C-alpha cells in the first residue's frame, strides 16, 4: 500500500521508478501546440516489431516510462480522431437503433469504434481489444493479463442523440488486469482527461486532484438509474471525481468494462479511490463501481450499506 493506493502486481511495479521528469514531459506534451507532431513520433516508434514483441506478454517487466508515454500518445490520437466524428455528428440528424429496451446505438458509435480499433491495431497488433459495440454483437471477451485496450467509442449515446453535450470517447489500457493508461475526451466542450499509472492525472495538460471534501452530508454525489438520466456518462462522472467537480459516484449494472477502464486510472492518479460499492476491491469486469475522493469512501460505504 502506498498512501491510499494499493500496489499493482509485481510486473507493474515499474511505476515506482518513474521520475518527475515523466510527469513534466506529459504536461508539456498535452499543452504543446505541436501535439500532433509529438503523437506521430511516438506512434512511429511504438509500432516497431521490436516494441510489439516486447510488450505482447505481461510477464515482461515494463521499466521505461517512455513506453507508457507512447501508449498514451497513440490513445490520445485515436480519441481525438474519433472525437471529430462525434463532434460532426452531434449537430446532424441521427440514425438510431436499439440495443435491448433502453440502450441506443448510432452509426457514430460504430464508426468511432472501427476507427479506434483500426488505429490501435495498426500500432499494437499483438494486443487484445474489448469494445462496447463488438461486445454487443459477439459477447464480452475475457480479460487476461495481456495488454488489453478497452474502448467505449461514444459514452453517453442517449445524451448524444438528444443533443446533450455530456458525451465522450473512453480508451483504457489494462496490463495484468490493472488499469494502466486512460484517456477520456469530450469533443463537444474539448476536455481531454488523461492518466498513466504513477504519473498523475491531467485535464488538458493541467494536473488535477480529487476534492478535499470530508463531510458526507456536504458531498456532491452522482449516480445513474436506467432511463432516468443523471449525467449519462460514467466515464465523465469518474473524471468529475478526478478533477474535484464531484465528490462521490457509484453505479451498479452499467454496460461493461469500457465504461470504467479509462476513468478508473484517472481517478486513482488524481488521488481518489475506486472500489466496489460494497466496500470490496474494484473489479474491472463486475459492472459494479464507485469512486470518491480520499476522505469519503468509508463513510459512504457505511451509509450505503445501511440503506440496503
TrEMBL record:
UniProt entry tagged with the keyword Nucleotide-binding: no
Cofactors, names only: Mg(2+)
Binding residues for Mg(2+): 132, 152, 154-155, 259
Name of protein: Inositol-1-monophosphatase
Pathway(s) the chain acts in: Polyol metabolism; myo-inositol biosynthesis; myo-inositol from D-glucose 6-phosphate: step 2/2
InterPro entries in the cross-refs: IMPase, Inositol_monoP_metal-BS, Inositol_monophosphatase-like, Inositol_monophosphatase_CS
Molecular-function GO terms, alphabetical: inositol monophosphate 1-phosphatase activity; metal ion binding
Pfam families (alphabetical): Inositol_P
PANTHER family on file: INOSITOL MONOPHOSPHATASE (PTHR20854), INOSITOL-1-MONOPHOSPHATASE-RELATED (PTHR20854:SF4)
